[in-house]
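Much of what follows relies on a compact textual record of a protein's fold. With that in mind, consider the following protein and its fold in token form.
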Amino acid sequence: MQRILDLYDHPPADGRAICVDEFGPLNLLPRKGMARRPQTKPKRLRATYHRYDGVMQMLAALDLVTGKLFYRIRPRKRAIEFLAFLKTCGRGGPARSCTSSATTTRRIAPHRNADVRAWCADNRIELVYLPTYGSWLNWIEAEFAALRYFALDGTDHRSHAEQNAAIGAYIRWRNARAEPKTGFVTDSPIRTWIHYPAKAA
């Protein structure tokens, strides 16, 4: 925990701190939510539905330097998809802020797959893992909460293409207003947390 907080407080001078995680599964189902409607015309959702089109998975990265969110939506979320997402960042694709260089070290929190770790080692990426039950430490989780609220709540998308378009529209809107991410839980009690070693039996 302290290692992650230190990275948030003091990003590497020669690189970037990037938070990575998976969002999903993305089902096609009515999602309740609040919306402004005329008093006599409430928005109604289907009471029953079928999951004929399966689920999709989203891989996303939050660049703390720019505050921008980058993503890919795929049918599965295995290590092979995760590694392909990292390589896209390295090639200067949609996540141009993740571009690799010989003098850059970047820090992210992904899978423990051997191929992922080997590629990261070859590309000067330090993997920093979350502690058990510590998913809330990943700054991208707050972005996922906003994504659910603004892009998915109160919707009833009938196809994955329609749902993916709604997600993409929100992320484009968000990235156009992105700012550097600083000051992670500065007033939280975890900032003064002290680890006491277990007593011998």
Notes: The longest helix spans residues 160-175. The radius of gyration is 19 Å. The longest strand covers residues 15-26. The domain at 2-31+48-183 is CATH 3.30.420.10 (Nucleotidyltransferase; domain 5).
